[in-house]
Write a structure and sequence with these properties.
alpha+beta, 16% strand
């Protein structure tokens, strides 16, 4: 390896270590293109608190359990068990759910939600996941007797 090739490789690695200069510091919480820690359910206590929540919405491939959180932002937790599929499938589903949440979080009420993936979600593409989750997001906060299923 010549010295110039080695220098280019080191220069390339060094560029990735530098922080991006076009992103202002501290702008993550209002930026809709990110998924900051403030909009994630991260602690076990947050997930346990949702287990007995009254708000549940079922759509094809997913169960969404939610409750009001007392904050001004919606927060997301994702559960994908090994029943859903191998690690690659579970991670793909979680990426799709995060992206759908990120695109819709401005329109969501301030709730904590846990999106539980079911086996059917493993066969869905991004459009299918997006369609089903947006359907569930529209039904969140609506009492079961007000939905079109119960209307007479």
């Amino acid at each position: 390896m010549s010295s110039s090739a080695g220098e280019q490789r080191v220069a390339r690695i060094w560029l990735f270590a530098l922080p991006p200069s076009n992103i202002p510091a501290g702008s993550g919480s209002d930026d809709v293109s990110t998924f900051p820690k403030s909009v994630r359910l991260r602690k076990r206590a947050d997930f346990v608190a949702l287990q007995n929540a009254a708000g549940k919405v079922t759509v094809k491939g997913f169960l969404i359990v939610w409750q009001d959180n007392g904050h001004d932002l919606p927060r997301l937790g994702i559960t994908a068990s090994k029943k859903t599929g191998c690690a690659v499938v579970r991670n793909r589903i979680k990426r799709f759910v995060r992206e759908t949440f990120r695109c819709n979080r401005r329109t969501l009420p301030p709730v904590d939600m846990n999106v539980i993936a079911r086996r059917e979600s493993a066969a869905m593409d991004f459009r299918g996941v997006q369609r089903e989750l947006e359907k569930a997001f529209r039904r969140m906060g609506v009492s079961p007797c007000v939905r079109e299923v119960c209307s007479l």
